[in-house]
Amino acid sequence: MIAxxxxxxxxxxxxIGDQVETGDTVYVDSKPxxxxxxxxxxxxxxxxxxxxxxxxxxxxxxxxxMNYPERIFHIGRLDKDSEGLILMTNHGDIVNEILRAxxxxxxxxxxxxxxxxxxxxxxxxxxxxxxxxxxxxxxxVEVISPKTFKIILTEGxxxxxxxxxxxxxxxxxxxxxxxxMNITLDIPVGKHRHLTxxxxxxxxxxxxxxxx
Length: 212
Prior knowledge:
The protein is α+β, with helices and mostly antiparallel strands. It is 20% helix and 30% strand. The protein has 3 domains: 1-36, no CATH class; 41-102 and 182-194, 2-Layer Sandwich (Alpha-Beta Plaits); 107-180, Alpha-L RNA-binding motif (Alpha-Beta Plaits, 2-Layer Sandwich), CATH 3.30.70.1560. It has 5 helices and 15 strands.
């Protein structure tokens, strides 16, 4: 657009390489570009007991727990009785992009159940389980100790992992989400951090591929 002469900066034609500072006026096709707030992208290690909701009337809601100085909201949900990675942002468009890609992006969990897993548990679990009047999509399941397994999902049915385990007679004792797409959990419970430029770049590239 700059090369086509459609952009002006402070009442002159913009040139490639121009820097825009606070107080500058920018027009594209004679229409002003409004000031863009800084987008915030946060990874939170949500503790058990915190509810993924922006409803401040609900005790233990995620907004009051974080007490972040700007208005932010969660991307997707993580059960109150589960812990681990949840993404927070003030960028509504990226929320919609990620939620639209719900059936295309991976989410990884570490799950501990109440009794020793059977020798064929991973095989059966990974092939799909009948819950909620449907059958879950094939997924990756890996047993990592007698009562603990890793599972990678590409869908997000209500309390999906717990229901899948119940189908086979297991009760979930702990459930932790450790990865969403390319974002990996690497902070203590209850803490948060901003996503890095590399993480954001990879995330946006994955979302673009999902559009194709």
